[in-house]
UniProtKB/TrEMBL annotation:
PANTHER family for this protein: CAMP-BINDING PROTEIN 1-RELATED
Coiled coil region boundaries: none
Taxonomic placement: Eukaryota, Sar, Alveolata, Dinophyceae, Gonyaulacales
Alphabetical list of InterPro entries matching this protein: Stress/Tellurium_Resist, TerD
Protein known as: TerD domain-containing protein
A Pfam family this chain is assigned to: TerD
TerD domain boundaries: 12-146
Lineage: superkingdom: Eukaryota
Length: 162
């Protein structure tokens, strides 16, 4: 008798939730995307990846002005939120992330002055595989009430395990 097929499921994340991705050992690439609607005004959200070593020392970052480092690529800065679907994306080639990087934090910041998360419409973060299959989704407006007046969020942390 053979084992059942592996099934991928996606689900909405809750604030503070942790997901063990150890079962995804075949996962080689991930895509972290953020999207939002403008609601009558241009809003600049920025997604970034920040790298840390075993001493928790910051050893680099990928963001709108440093688009490529350590197997991680930022696809470009959307300063308005216009258009359908994902507005900013970071692609991560997990096989190219150097061994000394043990953690990658993904953060979203609002660059537009006097705009906070509670003024955005349909803001979300999602993590997909390289084929576009969504694995995790965090709807910022629905789930982030305790920090909705802020302008920055840690949205995900990838940790290398031994």
């Amino acid at each position: 008798r053979s084992a059942p097929k592996v099934q991928r499921v996606n689900f909405p994340m809750r604030k503070g939730a942790a997901v063990e991705m150890a079962q995804c050992t075949s996962l080689k690439n991930v895509v972290v995307s953020v999207g939002w609607d403008i609601g009558g005004m241009s809003v600049d959200l920025d997604v970034s990846a920040v790298f840390f070593d075993k001493e928790a020392k910051n050893v680099g970052a990928v963001y709108y002005d440093n688009k490529r480092q350590c197997g991680v690529v930022h696809t470009g800065d959307n300063q308005t939120g216009e258009g359908e679907g994902d507005d900013e994306t970071i692609n991560v080639d997990l096989m190219k992330v150097p061994g000394h990087i043990l953690q990658i934090f993904f953060v979203v910041n609002i660059y537009t002055k006097d705009v906070t998360f509670d003024t955005l419409k349909n803001a979300y973060v999602r993590i997909s595989d390289s084929h576009g299959q969504e694995m995790l989704r965090f709807d910022i407006n629905d789930r982030c009430t305790s920090n909705s007046h802020g302008s920055g969020l840690i949205i995900s942390r990838f940790c290398r395990s031994s």
